[in-house]
Amino acid sequence: MRPVVPEVPMAQVRRFDHVGITVADLGAVTAFFVGIGLEVDGGPMPIEGEFLDTVIGMTGARTRIVMLRPPGGGTCLELSTFERPDHAPSQPGAMANALGLRNVAFEVDDLDGLVERLAADGWGLVGGVGRYEDAWRMAYVRGPEGLLVSLAQRLG
């Protein structure tokens, strides 16, 4: 039996623009992602006022954001830190089965080399390097503030 797919009169999404992550230490988390190969595309820039208050549903908010992009373009990673209101608690050590945004994933050229370099900087593997058929090698790294970062190398 085939799943029922609702009819959509016209497409609403034009493209995948970015993934946003709220962090406490914008500089440290930016440095981590630049270290794995992303490039700063903008920021850090402060945002406050009616626009931000309206979008996030909080009054008097102030944030700073950095936009990161893979070399050659593609979907951005937005890092933000809140100066007002203060950060809300989270579970930085959450594992892959925790509800919510699970990980940020990147395709890389040299998985072993990147994992070694990250380990030298103090960022360790969550488990090990796995192989999926003859298509991919993948590993989860626990980055700053407990972020799960998936690194995958295409085989062949």
Question: How would a crystallographer describe the biggest sheet?
Answer: 4 strands, mixed
Please, how many helices? 3
Mean pLDDT: 90
In whole angstroms, the N-to-C terminal distance is: 35 Å
* Helicity level: 10-25%
Approximate strand percentage: 25-35%
General shape: globular
- Rounded to an integer in angstroms, the radius of gyration calculated over CA atoms is 18 Å
Query: What's the helix-strand series?
Result: EHEHEEEHEEE
Molecular structure report:
It is a single chain. The longest helix is centred in the N-terminal third of the chain and has 10 residues. The mean pLDDT is 90. With 156 residues, the protein is an alpha/beta fold. The two termini are 35 Å apart. A four-stranded mixed sheet has the order 1-4-3-2, with helices on both faces.
